[in-house]
Design goal:
The complex is a heterodimer.
Chain A (H helix, E strand, L loop, with lengths): L3 H15 L1 H5 L23 H21 L6 E3 L2 E3 L3 H8 L3 H11 L6 H4 L6
Antiparallel strand pairs in A: 1-2
Chain B lengths: L3 H17 L5 H30 L30 H14 L1 H4 L2 E6 L3 E6 L2 H20 L9 H10 L11 H19 L1 H6 L2 H23 L6 H12 L11 H16 L7 H4 L4 H4 L22 H14 L9 H6 L1
Antiparallel strand pairs in B: 1-2
Helix pairs in contact in B: 1-9, 1-11, 2-11, 5-7, 7-9, 9-11
Classes of the chains: A mainly alpha, B mainly alpha.
Chain lengths: 123, 340
C-alpha cells in the first residue's frame, strides 16, 4: 500500500470516531432513569403513554393559550377541572423537579426552558 | 425516469420495515441484528475501500491547477490554487474539505441568440451542498446523546446551539429545517437543470431519496407522530447496542424502526457508493499532490527496474557478433590476439 502510514492513521481516526459509543459507555450507563411517581393522584390529564410522549406539546399549547391568548379557563377531564398551569397543576402532584422532570430530561439530554420563567421548587 | 427506480427502492425499504416490525419478534431483528450488521459492513467496507485506493498506484503527478504555478521570484505564485509545497497542499485540502472551494468555482454556460455563449458563476450547488453537509454533521453529532451516557457537554452544546431559536416544544432544531430544504433543492436541481438531469444516474438519486426519507421519519417522530416514540426506551436500546448487551424495553413506534432501518441501509450502502467521497476526498491525486514536477521527479511505481548497462558489459554481451561483423572492440579483439 502506498502512503501506508498516512492512510492507516486516517483510517484509525475514522474507525475510532465511529466506535466512540462502544468505548465511552460503562455499566453505570445502562441504568434507566427511575421516576418518583405521585402518591396523591391516580390519573393525569391524559393517559400515561400519551403524557410520556406528548407532555411537552401539551404544556406548550397551554402556555400559548394562557400567556399569548389570555385563555386561562381550566381543562375538564373526567369531570374534574385542571388549571392550565405548570406550578398550580402539574407540580401539585409531581412535587419534585429533581426526582421527576430531571430524571428523564438529564438522561436524554433535554433542556426544556420552562424554568427560565417558572420557579423550580426548592429541593 | 432514472429517479423512478431509486424512489421505488426507498418506498420499498420503508414498507419492508413498516410491515415487518408488526410481526412479534421482528423488533429484535430490526433493532439489534441489522444495526450490528450495518455498523460492521460500514466499518469493514470503509477500511476495504481506503486500502483498495491506497494500493492503487498514482503513475503521474496530476494535481488540478487553477492559478500561477511556482516560477521565477518576481512572478507571484497562487499558493492555494497551485500549491508547490506540502504545507500549501494541506492548506488547499483543508479549505476544500471545510469550505468546498471547488464547488465555489461552478459556472453556468448559456447560449443566447447570435449565437453568443456566456458563462456566469453559479453558486447554488455550493450553497445547498455546504448547507446539507454541515446540517448532516450536526445531526450526527446531536444523535450521540442517545449513544453516550452521561451525555458529554460538547454534544449538549451542539444541541443547545441547534435549538437556539426555542420554537415550540419539543424545541425545533435549525438543522432539521436546513437539511430538508437543502436536500429538496439538491433534488430539484437534478430534475430541473436539463444538463444535470442528463448526467444524473440512479445512484445519484438513491442517496438523496434515502436521506430525505431518513430526515422525514426523524422529523415526523420528533414533532408530529410522537406516540410510542419513547426516548428513554430508544436510548436504552442504543446504550445496550453500544455496551453489547442489547435489550428492547417496551414497545417502540414502528416509525422508529423505519428510521433505524433506513439508517442501516445508508450505512451498508455508504462504503460501496459515491458517498465514499467522504474518505475519497483525502485520497484524490488531483487534490493531494503538490504541483512540483519541475522540482521533484514523480516516480511511476509500476515502471520496471532499469539496470545500468555499461559499454564494457555491452561489449561482453555482443563481443563475438561484433568481431564477426568487423566492428572494433576494446578488449579481446582479433588485433590483440594477432599481436600475441
Amino acid at each position: 500500500m502506498y502512503d501506508r502510514v498516512k492512510i492507516s492513521t486516517g483510517l484509525l481516526v475514522v474507525v475510532l470516531l465511529v466506535l466512540i459509543p462502544f468505548f465511552y459507555n460503562n455499566d453505570a450507563s445502562k441504568a434507566a432513569p427511575e421516576l418518583t411517581m405521585p402518591t396523591n393522584a391516580k390519573a393525569c390529564v391524559l393517559p400515561r403513554a400519551e403524557m410520556r410522549a406528548k407532555h411537552m406539546q401539551l404544556l406548550n399549547t397551554w402556555r400559548d393559550e394562557v400567556v399569548r391568548k389570555g385563555d386561562s379557563r381550566p381543562v375538564l377531564v373526567d369531570g374534574k377541572e385542571y388549571p392550565k398551569s405548570l406550578q398550580l397543576n402539574c407540580m401539585e402532584c409531581h412535587t419534585s423537579k429533581v426526582n421527576f422532570c430531571d430524571k428523564c430530561h438529564n438522561y436524554s439530554s433535554v433542556r426544556p426552558y420552562c424554568w427560565d420563567c417558572h420557579l423550580a421548587p426548592v429541593e | 425516469m432514472k429517479y423512478a427506480f431509486p424512489l421505488a427502492a426507498v418506498v420499498a425499504l420503508i414498507l419492508i420495515a413498516l410491515i415487518a416490525v408488526q410481526i412479534p419478534g421482528m423488533q429484535y431483528l430490526f433493532g439489534v441484528i441489522i444495526p450490528y450488521l450495518a455498523v460492521a459492513v460500514f466499518v469493514g467496507g470503509f477500511i476495504y475501500r481506503l486500502c483498495y485506493w491506497g494500493k492503487s498506484p498514482v503513475p503521474f503527478n496530476i494535481p488540478t491547477t487553477c492559478g500561477q504555478e511556482f516560477s521565477l521570484p518576481w512572478i507571484k505564485q497562487d499558493k492555494l490554487e497551485c500549491p508547490s509545497t506540502r504545507l500549501q497542499v494541506v492548506a488547499r485540502m483543508f479549505l476544500e474539505i471545510v469550505l468546498f472551494r471547488s464547488l465555489w468555482r461552478n459556472t453556468k454556460a448559456t447560449m443566447y441568440e447570435g449565437p453568443k455563449l456566456t458563462y456566469e458563476s453559479s453558486k447554488w450547488l455550493w450553497l445547498f451542498g455546504i448547507v446539507f453537509h454541515y446540517s448532516f454533521l450536526i445531526i450526527v453529532l446531536r444523535h450521540l446523546r442517545l449513544f453516550l451516557e452521561p451525555v458529554p457537554s460538547c454534544v449538549a452544546l451542539v444541541e443547545i446551539l441547534d435549538s437556539l431559536l426555542q420554537v415550540g416544544a419539543p424545541l425545533m432544531y435549525i438543522t432539521d429545517a436546513t437539511i430538508l430544504l437543502s436536500l429538496i433543492m439538491l433534488l430539484l436541481r437534478r430534475l430541473w437543470n436539463p444538463y444535470v438531469r442528463y448526467i444524473s444516474l440512479a445512484n445519484d438519486y438513491f442517496p438523496l431519496f434515502l436521506i430525505l426519507a431518513i430526515v422525514g421519519t426523524g422529523i415526523l417522530m420528533r414533532y408530529f407522530i410522537r406516540s410510542n416514540v419513547d426516548i428513554e426506551a430508544i436510548k436504552q436500546l442504543a446504550i445496550g447496542l453500544a455496551t453489547l448487551h442489547p435489550t428492547i424495553v417496551g414497545p417502540i413506534s414502528s416509525l422508529f424502526y423505519v428510521h433505524l432501518f433506513l439508517v442501516c441501509t445508508l450505512l451498508v450502502y455508504f462504503p460501496f457508493s459515491k458517498l465514499m467521497h467522504m474518505g475519497g476526498v483525502f485520497l484524490s491525486p488531483t487534490r493531494n499532490l503538490a504541483n512540483d514536477s519541475r522540482m521533484h521527479r514523480h516516480i511511476n511505481p509500476w515502471n520496471p527496474p532499469i539496470k545500468p548497462h555499461s559499454y564494457a558489459s555491452y561489449e561482453d554481451e555482443f563481443r563475438e557478433d561484433m568481431i564477426a561483423q568487423g566492428i572494433p572492440v576494446e578488449q579481446g579483439g582479433p588485433q590483440e590476439a594477432g599481436a600475441k
